[in-house]
């Protein structure tokens, strides 16, 4: 029982340390950047990037939703997951300070919306349709 408590404390410490580093990186990036809007390569279809971690509970809850969207809308929507613990460069590029963060892009690669936290399948699809994108 004692070992489980110690493991939980160590895991919490590591997770909070990673988040603190990410928040500091966000602050440093924002000093040099006037806007969070990012232009991506135009892929001809709408795109959502979910930045999170395999250790984050809300991120894990989103995993089946992302997989379902990838299958259901494979020719009409691009869904990408980026693990912030493994890809620091993209974490800085997108100015991520809290996970999960979803970033939405139109067909021309223009960012049009960001959301922080768990986001349901219905809300993801509504975000695209609210911005004039139909499936």
Keywords:
4 helices; four-stranded mixed beta sheet; globular; alpha+beta; single chain; Glutaredoxin; 17% strand; 135 residues
Helix-strand topology string: HEHEHEEH
Alpha plus pi helix count: 4
> If you average the pLDDT, what whole number results?
80
Distance between the termini: 51 Å
| CATH topology name | Glutaredoxin
Can you say what the CATH homologous superfamily is? Glutaredoxin
Number of strands: 4
- Specify the overall morphology: globular
CATH uppermost class: Alpha Beta
The class by helix and strand makeup works out as alpha+beta
User: Quaternary status of these chains?
Assistant: single chain
Q: Which sequence of strands runs across the widest sheet? A: 2-1-3-4
Largest sheet: 4 strands, mixed
Strand content: 15-25%
Q: What is the total number of structural domains?
A: 1
> Which architecture name does CATH use?
3-Layer(aba) Sandwich
Our Rg estimate from Cα atoms comes to 16 Å
Tell me the helix content: 40-55%
**Unreliable sequence segments:** 9-35
Please provide a written account of the structure.
The termini are far apart. Helix 2 (57-72) links the parallel strand 1 (47-52) and strand 2 (78-83). The radius of gyration is 16 Å and the shape is globular. The protein has a single domain, classed as Glutaredoxin (3-Layer(aba) Sandwich), CATH 3.40.30. The chain has a 4-stranded mixed sheet with strand order 2-1-3-4, covered by helices on one side. It has 4 helices and 4 strands; from the N terminus they run H-E-H-E-H-E-E-H. Residues 9-35 have low confidence and may be disordered. It has helices spanning 2-31, 57-72, 88-93, 121-130, and strands at 47-52, 78-83, 101-105, 111-116. With 135 residues, it is an alpha+beta fold.
């Amino acid at each position: 029982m004692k070992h489980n408590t110690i493991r939980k404390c160590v895991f919490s410490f590591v997770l909070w340390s990673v988040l603190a580093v990410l928040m500091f990186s966000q602050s440093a990036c924002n000093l040099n950047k006037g806007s969070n809007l990012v232009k991506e390569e135009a892929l001809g279809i709408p795109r959502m990037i979910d930045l999170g971690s395999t250790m984050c509970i809300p991120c894990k809850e989103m995993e089946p939703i992302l997989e379902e969207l990838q299958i259901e809308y494979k020719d009409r929507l691009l869904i990408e997951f980026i693990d912030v613990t493994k890809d620091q460069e993209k974490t800085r590029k997108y100015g991520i300070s809290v996970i999960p963060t979803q970033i939405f892009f139109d067909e021309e690669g223009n960012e049009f919306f960001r959301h922080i936290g768990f986001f349901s399948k219905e809300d993801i699809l509504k975000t695209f349709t609210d911005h004039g994108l139909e499936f």
